[in-house]
Amino acid sequence: ELEDKISVADSLEILEKTRIELFGKKGAMTAEFKKLKDVPGPEKKAFAEGLNRNKANLQKLYDEKYSELKAKKIEELLKAETIDVSLYSNLEAKGALHPVMATMDKIIDYFVALNFSVEDGPKVEDDFHNFEALNLPKNHPAREMQDTFFCRDGGVLRTHTSPVQIRKMLETKPPIRMIAPGAVFRKDYDITHTPMFHQVEGLVVQKKGEVNFANLKSILSDFLHYMFGEVEVRFRPSFFPFTEPSAEVDISCIFCEAKGCRICSHTGWLEVLGCGIVDPNVFKAVEYENVSGYAFGLGVERFAMLLHKIPDLRMLFEGDRRLLEQFR
Ligand SMILES: [Zn+2]
């Protein structure tokens, strides 16, 4: 009966109760040993030997049971408190904005403070919004300036964020004061080009005569000082299909203080922006009359590269943590 009591115990708690019942001060075995004094002399020795044998036997059963239940308990605890060491701890992984996004935010902040709205549009565009309405009719040689990705259904991956300006003008009446930040796509891949990059374009449209090139020059000069600090800014005549007159904007080289280096091709100048007065044909396409406006556009990656002295544009998209960790 006592052996059974030990063998049915299924937890350490129950086994401990059983131990007290057997071996405790008022336990069953203790009671048996107390009988020893009433046993007649000649039988005492045999009785005592029997008792000790039984006690040793029970003790052995108890010890085995104890080890078994203890092992079981440890296993249960291990299971309950398992730590999956293959999981990454998120204590270390403090994220940060990608340098391109951080640069974009800095650019957006400037124009938002000047009351520009921030507009967005589709990345898959149609021919009208991406080319036609921007004074780039079919077979116009300027289309060659932009190596386009064409979709099977006739759409294109937008080659600039200018179509967002067309959409905005078709949607609303002037005045307009907007920027369009976002990803654009061109078939290009080298040290200063990736097939996807980001632009911020700006557009201001007001009543005819209310805005002119001087306004454009003033706002962009101030913007470039905000981005790059004390630099010289110069405007160079250029050509874009959707503006006339057009200009490219340079800043004095921030790497060599305009003395001439490899990055500025030894000219002392870095090209950073394109801009101009909106071409009348663009306003015709969106049926705006008696308005004038200016527009500008810049590549965000180029700004990020210049600001952080990154030598190869492609590095920005390789996802190498050794580079990215420096921007925490
Ligand atoms: Zn230089």
Summarize this structure as a short list of keywords or feature phrases.
11 helices; binds zinc ion; alpha+beta; BirA Bifunctional Protein, domain 2; two-stranded antiparallel sheet
As for the CATH topology of the largest domain, it is BirA Bifunctional Protein, domain 2
* CA distance, first residue to last residue: 72 Å
- Gyration radius (Cα, Å) is 41 Å
CATH structural architecture of the largest domain = 2-Layer Sandwich
The gross shape turns out to be rod-shaped
Strand order of the largest sheet: 1-4-5-9-8-7-6
Q: List the ligand species.
A: zinc ion
CATH class of the largest domain: Alpha Beta
Number of DSSP helical runs: 11
Oligomeric form of this entry? single chain
> In this structure, how is the largest beta sheet organized?
7 strands, mixed
Overall number of structural domains? 2
Helix proportion: 25-40%
Order of helices and strands: HHHHHEEHEHEEHEEEHEHH
Q: Could you report the average pLDDT, rounded to the nearest whole number?
A: 89
CATH superfamily of the largest domain: Bira Bifunctional Protein, Domain 2
Low-confidence regions: none
Briefly characterize the structure.
This protein is an alpha+beta fold and 328 residues long. It has helices at 2-8, 12-23, 28-35, 41-80, 99-113, 127-130, 162-171, 213-228, 280-285, 300-308, 321-324; strands spanning 117-118, 124-125, 156-157, 176-185, 196-207, 233-240, 243-252, 269-278, 291-299. The protein contains eleven helices and nine strands.
